[in-house]
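Retry 2 of 3 after timeout on previous attempt. Resubmitting C-alpha cells to design endpoint.
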C-alpha cells in the first residue's frame, strides 16, 4: 500500500446547550467577559448518563454510514481521549462493543488536546505498515466531567463532543497523499501548564503560558507541517487548529500565512472539546460544503503536555 486517505467523517454533540448567560447563573461571569477573552458563546454538555464512549460511538456510526461501511469493515479502533473514567476496558473497546464489532484491535491514546492528530498519524502509519486496512479514528472528550464549576477561568472554556474519521489504504497515493507526513513533538518540562489530575480528576491550566507558547512557538511548526506535505500555506483551502480559544486560533492562523484558507472557528459554538475539537470542526465544515472534496487542509492539534501534531489532509 502506497498511501492512505480519509474516507469519511462524522461528528456528534450532546443535545444540551449551555450559553454564556446560563454560566452567569453558576459562576461570577457574564457574556461580555467570556466572549472578549475566549470568543466562546455556547457549548454542549453531556448528561451523567452519557459517557464518553457513547459520544464516540455516535460520531463513529455517522462516519461509517457516510462511508457506506459496516462495523466489521474496520480492523483497528483508535480513540483519542483524556476523560475516560475507567482504565479498563478502554474507551475504544467500549465503542467497538457499542457498534457490534467482532474482532478489531482497540486502543486509546491520551495526548489531551493534540490527541486526534496523534491518533490520525498513528492510523496512517498502521495502514502504511500493513497492520490494518481500515482504521476508525475518534477524538472524544467529556470535559465537563473534569471541570471545577467554581473556577471561572476554566469552566467557561469547556464543552463535550466527538468527531470521527475513517482512514483507509489507497493503492496509488499519487503526488497528493490523502494524509500527509506528521510533524509532532512536545515540551515535556512544561507539561504542568495543562493538567487533568487529582481524585477526582480536575482540569486546570496556566492560561498565559499556554497562550504565549501557542502564539509564539507554534506558527513555525505548523508551517513546517505544510512543508513536509509539499504545500505552501497560501495554497491551503482550510486550517483546522485545536479549538482552544478564539484569541489563540486567529493570531496563530494569521502567522501561518494561510491567507486563502477557511479557518475553523467552531470554538464559538462548541467551546474547547479537547481531542474532539479538530474532527468536530472539520466534519462540520465538510458537512456544510465549505470545503470541497480533495481540498488540502492543515490539521494542527496542540495543548496538554504542551504536545503538538500537525499534518495536511485531503478532504473526503
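Retry 2 succeeded. Sequence:
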Amino acid at each position: 500500500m502506497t498511501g492512505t486517505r480519509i474516507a469519511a467523517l462524522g461528528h456528534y454533540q450532546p443535545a444540551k446547550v449551555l450559553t454564556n448567560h446560563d454560566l452567569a447563573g453558576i459562576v461570577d461571569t457574564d457574556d461580555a467577559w467570556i466572549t472578549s477573552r475566549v470568543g466562546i458563546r455556547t457549548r454542549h454538555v453531556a448528561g451523567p448518563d452519557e459517557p464518553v464512549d457513547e459520544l464516540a460511538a455516535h460520531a463513529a456510526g455517522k462516519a461509517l454510514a457516510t462511508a457506506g461501511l459496516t462495523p466489521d469493515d474496520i480492523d483497528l479502533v483508535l480513540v483519542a481521549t483524556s476523560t475516560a473514567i475507567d482504565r479498563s476496558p478502554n474507551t475504544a473497546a467500549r465503542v467497538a462493543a457499542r457498534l457490534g464489532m467482532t474482532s478489531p484491535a482497540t486502543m486509546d491514546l491520551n495526548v489531551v488536546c493534540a490527541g486526534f492528530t496523534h491518533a490520525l498519524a498513528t492510523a496512517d502509519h498502521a495502514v502504511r505498515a500493513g497492520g490494518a486496512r481500515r482504521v476508525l479514528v475518534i477524538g472524544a472528550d467529556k470535559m465537563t466531567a473534569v471541570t471545577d464549576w467554581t473556577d471561572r477561568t476554566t469552566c467557561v472554556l469547556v464543552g463535550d463532543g466527538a468527531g470521527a474519521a475513517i482512514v483507509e489504504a489507497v493503492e496509488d497515493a499519487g503526488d497528493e497523499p490523502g494524509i500527509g507526513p506528521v510533524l509532532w513533538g512536545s515540551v515535556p518540562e512544561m507539561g504542568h501548564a495543562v493538567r487533568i489530575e487529582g481524585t477526582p480528576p480536575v482540569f486546570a491550566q496556566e492560561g498565559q503560558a499556554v497562550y504565549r507558547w501557542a502564539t509564539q512557538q507554534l506558527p513555525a511548526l505548523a508551517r513546517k507541517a505544510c512543508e513536509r506535505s509539499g504545500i505552501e500555506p497560501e495554497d491551503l483551502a482550510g486550517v483546522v487548529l485545536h479549538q482552544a480559544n478564539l484569541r489563540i486560533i486567529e493570531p496563530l492562523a494569521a502567522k501561518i500565512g494561510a491567507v486563502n484558507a477557511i479557518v475553523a472557528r467552531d470554538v464559538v459554538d462548541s467551546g474547547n472539546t479537547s481531542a474532539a475539537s479538530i474532527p468536530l470542526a472539520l466534519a462540520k465544515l465538510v458537512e456544510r460544503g465549505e470545503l470541497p472534496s480533495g481540498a488540502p487542509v492543515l490539521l494542527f492539534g496542540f495543548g496538554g503536555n504542551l504536545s503538538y501534531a500537525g499534518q495536511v489532509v485531503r478532504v473526503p
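Attempt log closed. The mean pLDDT is 96.
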